[in-house]
Amino acid sequence: MDKDPQIRIAGISDALEVSRLLKSAMLTYCADSGISSSMLEAMTESVESVADRISRQTCLVAVSDGKIVGSICIKRVDNPLVYNFSEKTYGYLKDAGLSFYISRFAVLQDFRKSGVGIDLMAKAIDIAHESDARSILLHSAASNKNMVEFYGKRGFRLIDSESSRGYMRGLFALSFR
């Protein structure tokens, strides 16, 4: 096993392996969050859908010994109000300006707590910062203590939460203002 997995931009040819990684990681996410896997869109997403995301967004993968062990996608959001669901959220997002949104963050079980997730997140934050973004947004189950703590250590704070998907889902933001 490589000591330091290499991070690179994903290609469409990575879609199958990324899809398998996401489904595996999301099972742990569901267990840690106390939610059913049927509540997550990522669990039913096709390989073609993953390939489409890779082609439209900046998707990064961490590769160790030729195997994808982590992934994260980040996309530019010129109007972050698309994530508005309450007056509280609106109060934060109305002046957010250029933002980025993180999704499909996953690390293979054997590579958790190894720094791979920290490295992927740092690279995604760098991409947003270098693009003059004012903030980065992401959603995560508010009940997932591990992820809430992970995001908090990276400077993200919980802006608001809602339950339209059947579980308490938090909107987290990292501001560069």
Quote the beta fraction: 25-35%
Number of helices: 5
CATH uppermost class: Alpha Beta
Number of strands: 7
Q: Which H/E pattern describes the elements?
A: EHHEEHEHEHEE
User: What is CATH's topology name?
Assistant: Aminopeptidase
CATH architecture: 3-Layer(aba) Sandwich
CATH superfamily: Gcn5-related N-acetyltransferase (GNAT)
Q: Provide the helix percentage.
A: 25-40%
* Count of the separate structural domains: 1
Low-pLDDT residue intervals, each spanning 5 or more residues = none
Q: What class, by secondary structure content?
A: alpha+beta
Considering the chains and any ligands shown, give keywords for the structure.
Aminopeptidase; seven-stranded mixed beta sheet; alpha+beta
